[in-house]
Amino acid sequence: PIVAETWAEVRDNANTVVDWLIAGYEGNSKTDITVLAKGSGGIDQCAQTLPPGLAVFGGCRVRETGRFVTFYYADDAAPTMMKGRASMHKNGVLNVLEGSDGEIEMRPGLTEMETQLPVSTGGGNNLPSSTGATTSKPRPTATPPTPAIVPTTQEEPIPIQEPTEATLTSPTPNTETKTTTIAASPTADLDTKGSVVVV
């Protein structure tokens, strides 16, 4: 809850003391995430505060637009196992930071000017990626599944004519044709609606 509570402080328009947070693993824990740092100064100050040797998560208020961004950052000196574990936990942690407009590629020294987040003119996520500083994460749209069987609107059932025998003709390797006669199945029966029921 401490991460969600701190994120609420970042998102609070009346709060001028906290506009970014950095979260990471608590002590030697492999699963517990806590707030490692928080403060004001936006993306610029957050980027200067990134801890060395760790994989961290965070979020910032963009001072110029008032929009919110999240990030995942793994320092080059962070242990490989920590980086792998953190990348698996990334979505779960960033989902706690609700109301974000997108994700940025955080790095030491990143400035708000490099992100250039435009003001949204409509629905959707329109973050640029021209500088390499931001990554657009469009939300997936749900498409209804296509039915495997399309119901017909026909009132009357289509009559089924049962063949008494069928003839199959297939060529043989000598270019002769071979004919096989198959009798109709005695186990096929019609139900009252005209559908075939296999017994």
Summarize the main sheet: 6 strands, mixed
Listing every helix as H and every strand as E from the N terminus to the C terminus, the arrangement reads HEEHEEHEHEEEEE
CATH class identity of the largest domain: Alpha Beta
**Beta fraction of the residues?**
25-35%
* Count of strand segments: 10
- CATH homologous superfamily label of the largest domain: Severin
Q: Compute the separation of the termini in Å.
A: 61 Å
CATH architecture assignment name of the largest domain? 3-Layer(aba) Sandwich
Overall number of domains: 2
User: Which of globular, elongated, flat, extended, rod-shaped describes the shape?
Assistant: globular
> Whole-number average pLDDT?
74
- Cross-sheet strand order for the largest sheet: 2-1-3-4-5-6
- What structural category do the secondary elements indicate? alpha+beta
Q: What is the share of helical residues?
A: 10-25%
| CATH topology descriptor of the largest domain | Severin
InterPro entries: ADF-H, ADF-H/Gelsolin-like_dom_sf
Protein name: ADF-H domain-containing protein
Pfam families: Cofilin_ADF
Biased composition (Low complexity): 149-188
